[in-house]
# Entry
Amino acid sequence: MGRQKELVSRCGEMLHIRHLLLRQALAECLGTLILVMFGCGSVAQVVLSRGTHGGFLTINLAFGFAVTLGILVAGQVSGAHLNPAVTFAMCFLAREPWIKLPIYTLAQTLGAFLGAGIVFGLYYDAIWDFAKNELIVSGPNGTAGIFATYPSGHLDMVNGFFDQDRPPLVVGAHRVSTPGLHCGCLRVPAHDRLPPGAASTLH
# Structure
């Protein structure tokens, strides 16, 4: 037993990353990977089963679990921002140095891309089978919505513009009442900005 402890401790010393910012960036990458992997995985399960293996509630619960797990993994090391908007806000409020913004954003983007790639790999056969060997963005056989939010086909440019440009009270009421119909549920920027890149790469 003593030799095992010694071996584990020696491995820990060898693998320990001494540069704090690099450790924090890796923690952000892993935390965001977990967030996107569990979140997009739950969406994939609901979409690809056409709602027979879950629904809107299970997606919300999975994202809640994913955020919690991401915070548990990255919280002690980097603060678990898991989101470029949070990192920007922390820098803007002088709670983090500005040097962390590009590094954290890059790490979060990489983590989100890897998480989306893992989901695509796990559900590869199901995605191809779902739309009869085609990759479709929207509609009843659309699979790109697994990885990111897209405007609905019925939403024109004028409504999309006014959808985004209203006073805060109206925007708040609107976001609470209708985000799912027009453009899917809004999530975090790391999820909404990067997995479309993954989706366009994979689609």
